[in-house]
Design goal:
Blueprint (H helix, E strand, L loop, with lengths): L4 E4 L3 H12 L4 E4 L4 H6 L5 E2 L1 H9 L3 H7 L1 E3 L1 E6 L3 E6 H5 L3 E3 L2 H15 L2 E3 L3 E6 L7 E6 L2 E6 L2 E4 L17 E16 L7 E6 L2 E9 L2 E8 L10 H11 L2 H4 L7 E15 L2 E2 L2 E3 L5 E2 L7 H20 L4 H4 L1 H23 L7 H16 L1 H12 L4
Parallel strand pairs: 1-2, 1-12, 2-8, 5-14, 12-19
Antiparallel strand pairs: 3-7, 4-7, 5-6, 9-10, 10-11, 13-16, 13-17, 14-15, 15-16, 17-20, 18-19
Helix pairs in contact: 1-6, 1-9, 9-11, 12-13
């Protein structure tokens, strides 16, 4: 095969990149190591910055998003027993957020690429990148029992933290910044009506979060030890622990029910620099991981695609400056989002072996946010996302 851009990974970043490039006259082929069914079954993020909403609208994906998504105009933080901090997005930052599950975004993207007749090769194994710094980069892989090759001008690595793309950048070239957190999130999905707003909780028992996927699908999380397993958490134990960590009036509004999905995820922050090497460009989880506390992971992937697709289009229009500056441009937003996600994680979680002083400082931060509209505006602007 011959194409302009070979894209590794058919998750949201890779599929979105292929679609935008096609709409702007740049050819691509996408290869994905998993099956289409596997990708669609992954349970991931569900809160979109408004810039992400606008980008999806711009490529014709706004109809279902607005029909089934739910606008969030605020987030609440419970702390100190029954104290509740209210951060109003539209009042303080001029824009809302949108609750719309990543699974639905992936469905919409696959429907769009099928309609456009774009090439995605699923269940591709033995993927290797070749001549990344030379004049004739190419990708080899096995699919359908046959060895295949894609010759291309550029390679976009959108294959996540466990993919081959990030490993194609030599260790002496890249810097790996990482912070692992000493706890995980136990998350469940339940077919129950969610609370009318996003709610975070800082409690002596640990962190909790109440969010939604749609009006009859709730997503809840509690902080848990890293060595816990799903088997340690019955539904009854989860609901009891969740409501114990929420302010009383909020706990009284939680509708419980059987879980339909339950999993534990470790939390960490990671950034790979640079995000480009020769003719290879990283986007999404291949380049960075953030704890979900700040709702930035999917939105960062979409931002990367915005910058990278624009750079490829400009390059084929005769201007290579954006492509040469891609890593520097994308990393400015990446580090801003990593800092915000780290700050939210530190603000809201209990850390092992911390002192009473640490918790008092955390509570003072929350009290200051309660007193200061300027401070709340800063949080709101970072949460909903700055302009590209």
């Amino acid at each position: 095969m011959k194409t302009q851009v070979a894209i590794i990974g058919a998750g949201p970043a890779g599929t979105l990149l292929s679609l935008i490039l096609h709409q702007r006259g740049v050819s691509s082929v996408v290869i994905e190591r998993q099956s289409k069914h596997y990708v669609l079954d992954r349970v991931r993020a569900g809160v979109l910055e408004w810039t992400s909403v606008e980008l999806l609208e711009s490529i014709g994906m706004g109809q279902r998003l607005h029909a089934e998504g739910h606008r969030h105009d605020r987030v609440k933080i419970g702390w100190g027993g029954n104290e509740i901090l209210d951060i109003e997005f539209e009042k303080l930052a001029g824009r809302p957020m949108m609750a719309y599950g990543q699974t639905k975004i992936q469905e919409d993207l696959y429907a769009a690429v099928d309609h456009e007749g774009l090439d995605i090769v699923f269940e591709s194994s033995d993927v290797e990148l070749h001549d990344v710094t030379g004049d004739s980069p190419y990708v080899t892989f096995t699919a359908g029992g046959e060895s295949q090759r894609i010759d291309c001008d550029y390679i976009a690595g959108c294959d996540g933290q466990h993919g081959v793309s990030r490993t194609a950048i030599p260790d002496h070239v890249k810097t790996d910044y990482e912070r692992a957190y000493p706890f995980g999130w136990l998350g469940i999905l339940s077919e129950t009506p969610p609370l009318p707003h996003l709610l975070y909780a800082n409690n002596e028992r640990g962190f909790a979060l109440c969010s939604e996927r749609n009006p009859m699908l709730s997503r809840y999380y509690v902080q848990c030890p890293l060595d816990d397993t799903v088997k340690d958490w019955s539904d009854d134990r989860f609901w009891s622990e969740l409501t114990a960590r929420l302010p009383d009036d909020q706990a009284a509004q939680v509708v419980t029910g059987p879980s339909i999905e339950k999993s534990i995820a470790p939390l960490r922050s990671q950034v790979i620099e640079p995000m480009q090497y020769g003719n290879l460009f990283l986007a999404g989880d291949a380049a960075h991981i953030v704890p979900p506390t700040g709702a930035k992971g999917l939105n960062l992937a979409i931002a990367d695609v915005h910058y990278l697709s624009g750079a490829f289009v400009a390059r084929y229009g005769g201007d290579a400056t954006k492509l040469e500056a891609y890593s520097e441009t994308a990393l400015r937003r990446v580090w801003s989002s990593v800092r915000f996600s780290w700050w939210m994680t530190v603000l809201l979680h209990r850390f092992p072996d911390e002192s009473p002083f640490d918790q008092r400082m955390r509570e003072e931060d929350l009290a200051y946010l309660t007193r200061s509209e300027t401070a709340r505006a800063s949080v709101a602007q970072q949460y909903v996302g700055l302009d590209y």
